[in-house]
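User: Here's a structure from my thesis project, written as structure tokens. My advisor, Dr. K., wants to see whether a designed sequence matches the one we expressed. Can you design one independently, without my sequence as a hint?
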């Protein structure tokens, strides 16, 4: 058990590292008074949303915790669980919410400081933005490992006479709490940000002809708030639950080795080694991530993408070296995986074989490589200048319809290679180390979450920095630098979403195997009508879930569009200023008399009304999708039994992974096609630019893609894992 205390020490080290990064970011210059005022608008709006969201989630957590206590007492499987599972659930929810809150706070500190740093150099701006992102990354891994490790040690002491499986059943509540909050945070934050983004885009860019980040656009503050509550707070909670879920699944499957090792008269630690190993790998990921973060540097005129890639590659290389050392020293030299293989058919014995500790290392390596390859494929399908995005740009010249058709085609085609890579990772890791190897592959894929999330969070911070530069009317070179950071951030965000989806697929499979063991399933009979019903309904759920999220964005966006239009028409100063802007495409050539009109309009947009519309809509609309993910597996498990629930999990996993990849990549490709046109791109003899018909078509495509890539798409991977972990929590209560 000594290794666990080392892991807890590393988790605390991650939090200390995050604190010092937070302190360093807060000490940077925040710019002039106007910049700081805009930052306060954004920070206050983000905090108001989180308060409203957390009030709703507080009652959800309390109600579910009470139900968990009663269910444990009343069910026949209570001896394999405990009412303390409710405490684990609350702890997971608190840590998940805290990770998102810390990320939002540091992002709203770092955004204006990145803007100010961009006045000096691109290198300094990258340093500040990435510093803000690294706070969130290290908080997520620190809180995740600290929560899991502390609960495991505490329950092992409290239930010292019980099996390790019972301890893990109780700890599983931590993962359920984390997943629940993540789903609400992702859906609620996604609805918020896309409602504001659509309003700012369609009314600002297309109708009024002004940039979405222009201070005269009433939705611009809400849009910048959305970057924080959706892409920062929501994403932090998302990767927190992914990280926790992968480690939990591997611990469950590792528990199957305890009896084998003890039968071989080995000591207690050796018996628990396969359970402790996933926690150790998470701790090693903290070390590699911290070192990788220190390697992210760029010189003026350099490429920020290269700097981020260097940090990621350094972290990956260090992680592999540490993993080899840890696995070969923690696991016994020879161990058998057959004990954790559910008996799927009469020929199952032919699948039993011996695996070595080095096989576990190959499984971790397989997961790490598969995750990086999925990221490369995602970058190809969504990256600026790549062939798929160029195909959308070309078809934008013939109107909105062909733009949308092209984006749908890119999104659908982009599912092929990731699914092949995920399938290959599953097969290779299985033959390397059995079903335990599949779980280790998921841990390997997410081991460097600290730096992966730092890279992801850097993007929205840079996006906010560009908005503040626009609203503060800073020199063009400042916006050019922040735009360069933001363009890289769009690609890293798309890669991060692809990475999260790939890890969700493998983690969900590992959780499913753990559920099968805990519920006593040995065979899933595809000729059984109830199993087929479970598969069909499971496959249908991602479509219904996506529809609810998309329709919520549509309704919220309608309210936002009406409000922005109302302000443009009813506020005289705004109306006059828009006329001046149409008169002067280049505002540097504006006459003194017209400049007075523009100055008179400053501060007239009613930003707070737009923020309030997004907040109320998001809170109202996030509840139903979240409840579906919780209630469905519970109903199927208790009413129709574990086999039907197994079919449900299989259906939702396969359908959900494909839907998530399609939606995220289609939306990312549309977004970068629009950005390519805004930057000026030549297609044949024609040069496409901002304001052209092709640009208007690309804006429409981007608007369609926004809820796909930022609301429903990334939320589906949480849906998959949440349903799996809910099934795992109730498994002892519905055991055959």
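Assistant: Designed independently from the structure alone:
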């Amino acid at each position: 058990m000594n290794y666990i205390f080392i892991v807890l020490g590393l988790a605390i080290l991650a939090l200390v590292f995050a604190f010092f990064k937070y302190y360093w970011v807060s000490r940077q210059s925040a710019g002039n008074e106007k910049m700081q005022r805009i930052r306060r608008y954004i920070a206050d709006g983000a905090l108001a949303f989180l308060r409203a969201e957390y009030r709703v989630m507080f009652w959800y957590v309390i109600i579910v915790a009470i139900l968990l206590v009663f269910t444990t007492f009343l069910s026949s499987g209570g001896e394999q669980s405990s009412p303390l599972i409710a405490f684990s659930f609350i702890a997971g929810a608190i840590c998940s919410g805290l990770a998102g809150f810390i990320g939002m706070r540091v992002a709203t500190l770092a955004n204006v400081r990145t803007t100010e740093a961009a006045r000096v150099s691109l290198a300094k701006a990258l340093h500040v933005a990435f510093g803000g992102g690294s706070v969130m990354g290290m908080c997520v891994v620190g809180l995740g490992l600290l929560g899991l490790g502390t609960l495991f040690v505490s329950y092992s002491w409290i239930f010292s006479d019980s099996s390790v499986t019972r301890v893990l059943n109780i700890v599983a509540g931590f993962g359920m709490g984390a997943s629940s909050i993540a789903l609400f945070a992702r859906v609620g934050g996604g609805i918020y940000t896309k409602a504001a983004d659509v309003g700012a885009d369609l009314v600002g860019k297309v109708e009024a002809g002004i940039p979405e980040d222009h201070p005269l656009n009433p939705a611009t503050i809400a849009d910048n708030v959305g970057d924080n509550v959706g892409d920062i707070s929501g994403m932090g909670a998302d990767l927190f639950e992914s990280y926790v879920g992968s480690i939990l699944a591997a611990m469950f499957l590792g528990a199957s080795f305890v009896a084998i090792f003890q039968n071989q008269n080995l000591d207690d630690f050796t018996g628990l080694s396969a359970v402790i190993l996933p926690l150790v790998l998470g701790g090693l990921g903290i070390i590699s991530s911290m070192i990788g973060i220190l390697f992210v540097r760029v010189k003026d005129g350099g490429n920020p993408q290269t700097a981020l890639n260097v940090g990621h590659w350094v972290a990956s290389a260090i992680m592999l070296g540490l993993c080899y050392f840890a696995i070969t020293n923690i696991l016994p030299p020879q161990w058998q995986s057959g004990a954790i293989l559910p008996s799927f058919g009469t020929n199952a014995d032919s699948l039993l074989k011996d695996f070595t500790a080095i096989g576990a290392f190959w499984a971790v390596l397989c997961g790490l490589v598969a995750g990086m390859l999925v990221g490369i494929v995602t970058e190809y399908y969504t990256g600026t200048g790549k062939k798929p995005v160029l195909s959308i740009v070309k078809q934008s010249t013939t109107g909105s319809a062909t733009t949308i058709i092209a984006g749908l085609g890119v999104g659908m085609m982009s599912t092929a290679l990731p699914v092949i890579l995920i399938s290959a990772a599953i097969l290779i890791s299985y033959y390397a180390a059995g079903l335990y190897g599949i779980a280790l592959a998921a841990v390997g894929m997410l081991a460097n979450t600290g730096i992966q999330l730092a890279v992801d969070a850097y993007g929205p911070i840079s996006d906010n920095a560009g908005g503040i530069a626009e609203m503060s009317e800073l020199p063009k070179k400042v916006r050019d630098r922040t735009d360069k950071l933001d363009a890289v951030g769009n690609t890293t965000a798309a890669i991060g979403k692809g990475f999260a989806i790939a890890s969700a697929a493998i983690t969900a499979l590992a959780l499913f195997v753990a559920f099968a063991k805990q519920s006593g399933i040995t065979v899933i009979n595809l000729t059984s009508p109830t199993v087929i019903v479970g598969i069909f309904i499971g496959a249908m759920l991602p479509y219904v879930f996506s529809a609810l999220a998309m329709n919520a964005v549509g309704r919220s966006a309608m309210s936002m569009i009406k409000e922005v239009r109302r302000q443009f028409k009813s506020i005289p100063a705004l109306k006059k200023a828009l006329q001046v802007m149409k008169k002067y495409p280049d505002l540097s050539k504006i006459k003194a008399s017209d400049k007075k009109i523009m100055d008179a309009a400053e501060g007239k947009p009613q930003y707070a009304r737009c923020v309030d519309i997004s907040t109320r809509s998001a809170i109202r609309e996030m509840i139903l999708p979240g409840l579906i993910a919780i209630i469905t597996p519970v109903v199927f498990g208790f009413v129709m039994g574990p086999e039907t629930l197994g079919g449900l999990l299989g259906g939702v996993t396969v359908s959900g992974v494909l839907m998530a990849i399609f939606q995220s990549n289609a939306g990312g490709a549309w977004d970068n096609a629009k950005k390519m046109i805004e930057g000026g791109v030549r297609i044949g003899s024609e040069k496409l630019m901002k304001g052209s018909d092709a640009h208007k078509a690309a804006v429409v495509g981007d608007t369609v893609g926004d809820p796909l890539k930022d609301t429903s798409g990334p939320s589906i991977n949480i849906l998959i894992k949440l349903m799996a972990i809910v099934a795992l929590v109730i498994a002892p209560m519905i055991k055959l």
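When you compare it with your expressed construct, this may help: The first strand starts at residue 334 and ends at 336.
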